[in-house]
Design a protein that fits this description.
Bound molecules: zinc ion
Distance between the termini: 72 Å
Organism: Rhodococcus tukisamuensis
Number of domains: 1
Largest sheet: 6 strands, parallel
Pfam families: Peptidase_M19
Oligomer: single chain
CATH superfamily: Metal-dependent hydrolases
Keywords: Membrane, Transmembrane, Transmembrane helix
CATH topology: TIM Barrel
CATH class: Alpha Beta
Protein name: Zn-dependent dipeptidase, dipeptidase homolog
Structural class: alpha/beta
Strand content: 5-15%
GO molecular function, one term: metallodipeptidase activity
């Protein structure tokens, strides 16, 4: 029994305990959703009307999107959500044949395009707030393996509608089944930054076995494999980076130059014996931001037989309109040829866009309005990317 002197304390203690529980429960339940809502926005915009003719063409396309960060968020990708930019129902509405799901394993505080150190990490808090398995809290490798497991589980629970693509045979079967009228979307696992190797080449096998078939060497900071466009040093490939590059080409993992520093991109393009991609971004000619590609880099990607995926967010194309996306696509075609143009949305990558994946027919409409033929649109919207995948995948 408490003494009369302390009795008045009890309601305060209970009150603060309740508040504490509310705060903790809020942190683990409301917070991940609120964080995502504030970071993956879709703003209202005046989008072009999609004509019946465009809709018919769009529904006949094999569309491929080379980059989304959906696996980072605490959501069931099989269920339609009111937040973020994609899930399976919305991919189906957009008639997407192949979606690349990327794993972000570390992201610096005050992330910016100019200079970031590797000393801080926002993802750590996110892994705890989302109640991810403790093995992922302190390990970048485990975070990516967890993302791969999430995708694998979604595919297993999807009644065959979401199918993992790890080989060219997997890809062919997704495309054949779609051509036969089945509602199937392919999912290819990639990583955004090889910091998840944790400096150890042997971890490449773990990621490969988990399904990694595309990899960007860096994200927002320099790591053990290469310099980032947004790092402090912005250097080229390291010895580990060169070893991993050779291993990727040997085993059929697509090299992605997105976020790499200009010297690292130059070296990768010189070394490449297989098609290389720039999975998501823009071009400096239409949007002068340091993460976007120079004309030389577009030519370099084209020379490998690879593709440049144009994103839909402001820092990639400077304006949230289908016209700005198609301006960048047209520039890629002018410099690198029609076979180099592709899509890389960066949906759910802490980006603000004007349409989610269910509405990507607005791009098809804009391409038609520019006078592009049906066959050209087929190539741009997915044909080119699927060609690269069929060529590089094991
Ligand atoms: Zn990115």
């Amino acid at each position: 029994m408490s003494s009369p002197k302390r009795r008045w304390l009890r309601p305060i203690l209970i009150g603060s305990l309740v508040l504490g529980v509310v705060a903790v429960v809020g942190f683990f339940t409301v917070a991940p959703g609120a964080v995502e809502r504030s970071m993956n926005k879709t703003v209202a915009a005046d989008l072009p009307e999609v004509s019946a003719q465009t809709r018919e063409l769009h529904d006949s396309l094999q569309i491929a999107d080379m980059h989304s960060d959906t696996l980072m968020w605490d959501r069931d990708i099989l269920k339609r959500s009111s937040r973020g930019h994609m899930d399976l129902p919305r991919l189906q509405d957009g008639n997407v044949a192949l979606q690349v799901f990327s794993s972000v394993s570390k992201s610096p505080k005050h992330q910016n395009y100019d200079s970031n150190s590797d000393q801080t990490d926002n993802i750590e808090l996110l892994t705890v707030a989302q109640l991810q398995p403790p093995r992922t809290w302190g390990s970048l490798l485990q975070r990516s393996l967890y993302h791969a497991e999430k995708l694998e589980k979604a595919a297993a629970d999807s009644d065959g509608q979401l199918r993992l693509v790890r080989t060219r045979a997997d890809l062919a079967s997704v495309l054949d089944d779609r051509a036969a009228g089945q509602n199937v979307t392919g999912a290819l696992f990639s990583v955004e930054g090889l910091q998840n190797l944790e400096g150890n080449a042997a971890n490449f096998d773990r990621l490969y076995d988990a399904g990694m078939r595309m990899a960007g060497f860096t994200h927002f900071f320099d790591n053990e494999t290469a310099g980032s466009m947004h790092g402090e040093e912005k250097g080229g490939l390291t010895d580990l980076g060169r070893t991993v590059f050779a291993e990727m080409e040997r085993r059929g993992v697509i090299v992605d130059i997105a976020h790499a520093s200009h010297p690292a991109i130059k070296e990768m393009l010189e070394r490449a014996t297989r098609p290389v991609v720039a999975s998501h971004g823009g071009v400096q000619a239409t949007c002068d931001v340091n993460r976007n590609l120079t004309d030389d880099e577009i030519r370099g990607v084209a020379a490998t037989g690879g593709v440049v995926g144009i994103g839909y967010w402001d820092a990639a194309v400077c304006e949230l309109t289908p016209a700005a996306v198609v301006d960048a696509i047209e520039h890629v075609i002018k410099v690198g040829g029609l076979e180099t143009a592709a899509l890389g949305s960066d949906y759910d990558g802490a980006t603000t866009v004007a349409w989610d994946t269910s509405e990507i027919a607005v791009i098809t409409q804009e391409l038609r309005d520019r006078g592009r033929s049906d066959d050209e649109i087929r190539a741009i919207m997915g044909g080119n990317t699927l060609r690269v995948m069929a060529e590089v995948l094991p």
